[in-house]
Design goal:
It is a single chain. By secondary structure, the protein is an alpha/beta fold. It contains 15 helices and 13 strands. It has a 4-stranded parallel beta sheet with strand order 3-2-1-13. Strands 8-10-12 form a 3-stranded parallel beta sheet. Strands 4-5 form a two-stranded antiparallel ribbon. Helix 4 links the parallel strand 1 and strand 2.
């Protein structure tokens, strides 16, 4: 077998050669970022020219992927949609079983943005390919010329819903360990792991990956994140997350940085209860936000909001449903892309009245896995009709999602999945482990 550095060069150079031009995820490796308490990204150019400024070129990229023109076209499109179409485009549904016809029918009939695939929806490789193909056809049958959100939790380690079908990668803590051992090599193997993960997922028909985890764990007292976190050190975590975002962008798949503003300090599990995080805003900025700031600098397309009770920010309200938390992300950190909730079927938000509607009104663009997808769709339709949520808010959310899916299709078309993607993924996984341990 070739030495680690030699095999790494083959993986990175080969995959990028096949993928075509460098695009938004490329550039020199980031140095270790400083811990910032202010916004770390520059807003993208406005699509509305002033009296003294020339019009913005529609090919100008936004700070999160799509071009200004793609976003404007998405806004024009959703402005023509019915409330039923709008409501669907802000929901990523859940389904039961492994029959591809079930989620395909949901996407077509409810106009869903897409679905989240879990291990319970997976039988084997052939079934996965049949399912993702059926979902793509369903969106096209619904009149959409952009792909649906077909997402999966494939973080590496034990949160990998395609176990036995896609290549197994180590926990994301390996990325932090690799960077701690050798910063430049660590960032490269992390980026290569994300690149090959994304390419392999695309080969299976997926358009989204619910990764990377940007939570900074506090160690043994953290029952939920643990080894899913890249590090207990905010600076190491920031480097790992930034490298992963570049890799996923290179692969032409939508990544999802999670769980804002950071679940690693919570001492209870949001799958079961609503955890309280008693950190002050200053503590959150210093400990939890650096990886998210790094992701935004690297043009992260989507950020997932956590179900946490931030007692010093929005007490008693899950972060995913708190306008103050969306303001922290958008106004303070400068994020302009798609915001998505954590699963709305989790115990942290169970029992709350109309949780999806609360999240949408607070600032969510995508509502992930509500308990009952059809009922949630109708709730949003009725809320638009009654004015409980403004049509403007739903159009804003839907347009971002449409623009991002348009970007994904464009980048994926430029970067075909190589025939030897599985071999490359296995090599990248081995290299990450070797660099870490």
């Amino acid at each position: 077998m070739l030495p680690l550095r030699s095999r790494l060069a083959v993986v990175v150079a080969g995959a990028l050669l096949v993928s075509g031009c460098a695009g938004p995820g490329t550039g020199s490796d980031d140095p270790a970022p400083s811990v910032s308490t202010t916004s770390s990204s520059t807003p993208s150019p406005s699509t509305e020219p002033s009296a003294t400024e020339p019009p913005v070129d529609p090919e100008t990229p936004t700070s999160w992927g799509p071009t200004v023109g793609e976003l404007e076209e998405a806004r024009d499109l959703v402005a023509t949609w019915t409330p039923e179409q709008l409501a669907g485009q802000v929901i990523v549904g859940r389904f039961h079983g492994t029959d591809p016809a079930i989620p395909a029918r949901m996407v077509r009939d409810l106009h869903l943005a897409g679905v989240s695939v879990t291990s319970a929806n997976v039988a084997d490789r052939e079934q996965v390919l049949a399912m993702t193909s059926a979902l793509t056809r369903a969106a096209a049958a619904d009149g959409r010329d952009f792909p649906p959100v077909i997402g999966v939790d494939q973080e590496g380690g034990y949160v990998s819903h395609l176990r036995g079908i896609a290549t197994e990668f180590p926990h994301f803590q390996s990325a932090g360990a690799a960077i701690a051992a050798d910063a430049r090599l660590g960032r490269r193997v992390t980026r290569a792991a994300a690149l090959t993960t994304g390419l392999e997922l695309r080969g299976l028909g997926f358009t989204w990956v619910f990764a990377p985890v940007a939570d900074v764990t506090i160690g043994a007292a953290d029952p939920t994140i643990g080894a899913r976190s890249p590090s207990q050190d905010p600076r190491l975590a920031a480097q790992a997350v930034g490298a992963a975002i570049k890799g996923y962008d290179d692969a032409g798949i939508v990544s999802t940085v999670k769980h804002f503003p950071g679940h690693g300090g919570a001492t209870s599990d949001s799958h079961d209860v609503l955890p309280k995080l008693d950190s002050t805003l200053a503590q959150i900025r210093a400990h939890d936000l650096p990886p998210f700031e790094s992701a935004i600098r690297q043009q992260a397309p989507a950020v997932m909001l956590s179900h946490l009770d931030l007692t010093h920010v929005a007490p008693g309200v899950p972060a995913s449903m708190a306008p103050e938390v969306y303001s922290l992300l958008r106004d303070d950190l400068g994020f302009e892309g798609v915001t998505i909730t954590d699963s709305l079927g989790m115990g942290a938000v169970g029992g709350r009245p109309k949780p999806a509607l609360q999240a949408l009104k607070a600032g969510a663009d995508l509502l992930l896995m509500p308990v009952d997808t059809a009922t949630t769709h109708q709730i949003v339709v009725d809320a638009i009709a009654s004015g409980e949520v403004s049509r403007e808010r739903v159009e804003e959310a839907a347009a971002r999602v449409v623009a991002l899916q348009t970007w994904q299709a464009r980048i994926a078309a430029q970067r075909p999945v190589p025939a030897d993607v599985v071999e490359r993924a296995r090599a990248a996984s081995a290299d990450l482990l070797s660099a870490a341990y």
